Amino acid sequence: MSQVKPARKDREPSKRPQDPDGTRQDILETASREFALNGLSGARIDEIAARTKSSKRMIYYYFGDKEGLYLRALENAYRTVREGEDDLDTDGLPPVEALRRLVEFTFDHHHEHEDFIRMVMIENIHHGEYLERSDVISGLNVTAIDHIASIYRRGVEEGVFRPGLDPLELHWQVSALCFFNVSNRATFSKIFGRDIGTTDHQRRLRDNAVEMILKFVSAG
């Protein structure tokens, strides 16, 4: 009569994430790199799962599907830049210094977060289709306009900024100067035979961006 074999005690327990928030954030950051590199259509969930030591099933559990993951990654990218702006604490600074710090932060953030720029470029290819589905991105970016509007308003009241400018358009100008530095750096460098990404070039372009914005708003 055959005996029933006892259950193996050395069998590995089922692996469950001990830090679900950390797991989700790891997946988001890895997915952002994958989407930035390959776009929405080219990104592979298998690759994201392998790099995060998770599973496709877990990713779909957290985010629904690939489009859901893409949208959450896009929201996370915008949240990161807006949180960085909030940490600047410009309320106690004179308006000129506050605007200088905001432009410097924007330039540095875009330079250091190239995946954010590429994801925004990809979303523009999709004509903002997925961004429009988001319940949070619009609210996140309202704070960016509120921030620059507050600095500008104080500058006008103190007589150092000229009146009549639209804070939304001012935000556009700051973003354009800082965004182009990443989005077109490679092609610009190849076309004109100068590496715009060197430390010296980046320092000068950062200083130029600040100077152009301050001169644009100056009352003098």
TrEMBL record:
MF term (GO), any: DNA binding
Stretches the record annotates as Disordered: 1-27
Stretches assigned to the HTH tetR-type domain: 21-81
Pfam families: TetR_C_29, TetR_N
DNA-binding region ranges: 44-63
Biased composition (Basic and acidic residues): 7-27
Domain of life (superkingdom): Bacteria
Protein keywords: DNA-binding
Cited PANTHER family: HTH-TYPE TRANSCRIPTIONAL REPRESSOR SCO4008, TRANSCRIPTIONAL REPRESSOR
Protein's name in the database: TetR/AcrR family transcriptional regulator
